[in-house]
Design a protein that fits this description.
Number of strands: 17
CATH architecture: Beta Barrel
Number of helices: 2
Strand content: over 45%
CATH class: Mainly Beta
Shape: flat
Distance between the termini: 24 Å
Length: about 325
Amino acid sequence: MNLTARVSYGMFKIAIASGAVLSSAILAPGGVRAAALAPRGEVSAVAADTGQGAPPEDAWTAEYQGEMSLLYAAGNTSALTVALGAQGRWEGGGWNMKLRGRSARTQTRTVTRSAVGSPDSFELFENATSELTGENYALAGVTERQLGGQVTARLNIGWERNTFSGFNNRLTNALGFGGAIFESGWAALRGNAAATLTWQDDIVEDPDRPASFVGARVGVELMSQLTETTSFEMTLTADENLSDPADLRVDADQSLLVNINGILQLKTNLRLLFDNRPALAQVPLRDRAGDDTGETVIVSLMKLDTALTLALVANF
């Protein structure tokens, strides 16, 4: 087995050739983005442009990324939000595979104060309560196989848990095709379409929507190098329930990344989740005087969820 290592400035990439040759290279700034924007099968040529030497055509490349976002506030009230994310991508031999996971939790502590006594002489009591006010977990994998030219076959499997949006589990399987719409030296736009099978476990059962249903999905992915150190990425996906046209979900995920050095980036992410048929929730029923009647009513949750995060990203 031959072992070669080349070290330079930029993102760490590993290429493993099926011919028992292991090579390690670090692409210079611009080389990573150029590789991401290059058409499938042209990554080797991009590597050659960096002066590192091109890996064999049957080589596999791997990229890994981790990110963390933290918000803490304390005083009369306190809140802690922790968001973590990780992503791995493997490409070679006409295959492209990506696995991504993320989690976010918000814990809020509220202090209620009351006084006992007279206005001139009293004793102060404080009662602190802590509750989970936000929770979201997701894991998704995408496998693409190049069919010819810029056309690929795609298999996507995704799981999500979002109790504050009304569901414990949502599992979506999608099988379809993808392809390049536009490519240049500074931007790449790809589109995809698929048939889907979705299973959803709602916290409050919706009698008008089955737990599993067949649907259709269309999406676009945009990657753009705005400046030498700044890039923009967007993924827009629309899922339609074919048995109920009103049941439409749209996921718009947009990120602005600024390079700090060859490994670290600052990432500003805006994610919009629209559900035209949101999940249901049970809320307590009170009378006109504000007293609890002991009964509950069923209402629909809001259609739009918005999340804005600023994270530190490490590339390996």
